[in-house]
């Protein structure tokens, strides 16, 4: 039960880091001319790319730290700062949607990178991988990443119904709530980094 609770908590954090409102907004804007088949394919490719990218960074994070001589605590503080800036960006979002050419495949860029896996998400995943102490923790983190990726797929798969239910105002409110959640996560990450550094 303890492992399931940790998995669920980690998955929620990772899903929030992927800024679903921003991803949904970009997807809705770019997929106006898509048929249902292409929309579903884009949702699948995006979620698969997010999981694969996240998994690679998770397991290579420690090697990257060693290569460049970063300390885990310094990276935590940097990641927390980027995450806080992402939260501020979501809170100040004015509702403008990016536009894309109809023939462009948006599943990898910009949906998977940099919207889902932006600097803050990448940094957080790398910190998780570098701070994992045993195989059980790695399995839990990988399962949480998979769950969050599936959450992105579900979010994009049902993008049109979500927009109809929430409307523009509801999407804006969801964006602000996500921003607040990201700010809280950022504060915790920075606090952990500073506390470990001082000790």
TrEMBL record:
Annotated InterPro entries: Multi_antbiot-R_MarC
Phylogenetic classification of the source organism: Bacteria, Pseudomonadati, Thermodesulfobacteriota, Desulfovibrionia, Desulfovibrionales
Protein name, entry field: UPF0056 membrane protein
Protein's cellular compartments: Cell membrane
PANTHER family reported in the protein's UniProt record: UPF0056 MEMBRANE PROTEIN YHCE
TM segment ranges: 12-30, 42-61, 111-133, 139-159, 171-191
Pfam short name (any one): MarC
Family of the protein in this entry: Belongs to the UPF0056 (MarC) family.
Keywords: Cell membrane, Membrane, Transmembrane, Transmembrane helix
Membrane topology of the entry: Multi-pass membrane protein
Main subcellular location of this protein, as a coarse class: membrane
Stored NCBIfam families: NAAT family transporter
GO cellular component entries: plasma membrane
Top-level taxon of origin: Bacteria
């Amino acid at each position: 039960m303890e492992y399931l609770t940790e998995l669920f908590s980690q998955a929620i954090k990772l899903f929030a880091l992927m800024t679903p409102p921003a991803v949904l907004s970009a997807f809705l804007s770019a997929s106006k001319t898509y048929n249902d088949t292409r929309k579903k394919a884009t949702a699948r490719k995006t979620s698969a790319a997010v999981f694969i990218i996240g998994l690679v960074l998770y397991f290579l994070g420690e090697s990257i730290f060693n290569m460049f001589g970063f300390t885990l605590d310094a990276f935590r503080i940097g990641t927390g700062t980027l995450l806080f800036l992402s939260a501020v960006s979501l809170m100040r979002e004015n509702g403008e949607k990016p536009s894309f050419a109809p023939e462009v495949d948006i599943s990898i860029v910009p949906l998977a990178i940099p919207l889902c896996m932006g600097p803050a998400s990448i940094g957080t995943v790398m910190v998780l991988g570098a701070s994992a102490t045993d195989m059980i923790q790695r399995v839990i983190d990988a399962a949480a990443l998979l769950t969050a990726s599936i959450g992105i797929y579900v979010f994009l798969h049902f993008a049109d119904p979500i927009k109809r239910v929430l409307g523009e105002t509801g999407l804006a409110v969801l964006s602000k709530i996500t921003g607040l959640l990201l700010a809280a996560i950022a504060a915790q990450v920075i606090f952990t980094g500073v506390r470990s550094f001082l000790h």
